[in-house]
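User: Reviewer 2 asked us to show a designed sequence for the structure in our supplementary figure. I'm pasting the structure tokens here. Could you produce the per-position amino acids so we can include them in the response letter?
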């Protein structure tokens, strides 16, 4: 499955091409977290089985997710979402959008480093060794 970005009706390049099971996990997690933080999920299925996500919705989602992460004092919520948010930030970065506002320079650097770490494990094109 490929994840494309979209600005209006214009598709971007492939943002990520994970294995099918990982794509389903990410999308399900995304929709669950979006419901918890009252953010747009913004996914649409394409006829070929791929998926598109609206870039403007992704920006809003990442902004709200990071805000909620820093506002929460629930350790399990933070533990369950930190890696997921970093994965969403990779898609945002690949769509050419900046990291959302993060409280404090150290926190901003930490999110950027975690995003970059996740990016190295997120293929944009399928590899033959799945």
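Assistant: Here is a per-position design you can include in the supplement:
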């Amino acid at each position: 499955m490929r994840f494309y970005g979209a600005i209006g009706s214009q598709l971007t390049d492939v943002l990520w091409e994970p294995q099918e099971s990982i794509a389903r996990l990410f999308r399900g997690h995304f929709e669950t977290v979006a419901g918890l933080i009252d953010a747009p999920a913004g996914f649409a299925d394409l006829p070929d089985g791929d998926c598109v996500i609206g870039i403007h919705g992704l920006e809003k989602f990442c902004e709200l997710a990071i805000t909620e992460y820093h506002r929460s004092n629930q350790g399990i919520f933070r533990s369950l979402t930190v890696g997921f948010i970093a994965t969403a930030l990779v898609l945002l970065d690949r769509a050419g959008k900046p990291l959302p506002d993060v409280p404090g320079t150290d926190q901003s650097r930490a999110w950027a480093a975690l995003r970059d770490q996740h990016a190295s494990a997120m293929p944009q094109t399928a590899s033959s060794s799945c």
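For the response letter, you might also mention the following. The chain has a mean pLDDT of 91. The CA atoms of residues 90 and 120 lie 10 Å apart.
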